[in-house]
Write a structure and sequence with these properties.
With about 90 residues, this protein is mainly alpha-helical. It has a single domain, classed as Arc Repressor Mutant, subunit A, CATH 1.10.10. It is built from 4 helices and 2 strands, in the order H-H-H-E-E-H. Helix 1 packs across helix 3 and helix 1 crosses helix 4. The longest helix has 26 residues. The chain is globular, with a radius of gyration of 14 Å.
Length: about 90
């Protein structure tokens, strides 16, 4: 599991749509879909339910999102601390 995959996942959930998330992330929709599929394969659960209107988050996806949000907050704190010379 990579940090960028968590960012991608959160963006898909935010937009409820792979195409819109891919555009916001400045990557292609197939590349985004591939990374989400890799994340689902690694976690061995469906994180998103694909629908005609876009995507819906599954219960397992909600659990991952909660943790991913916290991880990304911590990563941001680390980056801020490193750049501002504060202690972590």
């Amino acid at each position: 599991m990579e940090i960028f995959q968590l960012r991608y996942f959160i963006m898909v959930v935010k937009f409820g749509n792979f195409t819109k998330a891919a555009k916001e992330l400045h990557i292609t929709q197939p590349a985004l879909s591939k990374q989400i599929k890799c994340l689902e394969e690694e976690t061995k659960v469906k994180l998103l339910k694909r629908t005609k209107r876009g995507v819906e988050i599954t219960e397992e996806g909600k659990q991952l999102k909660k943790h991913a949000d916290n991880i990304l907050i911590e990563v941001e704190k680390i980056n801020h601390a490193i750049h501002s010379k504060q202690t972590i």
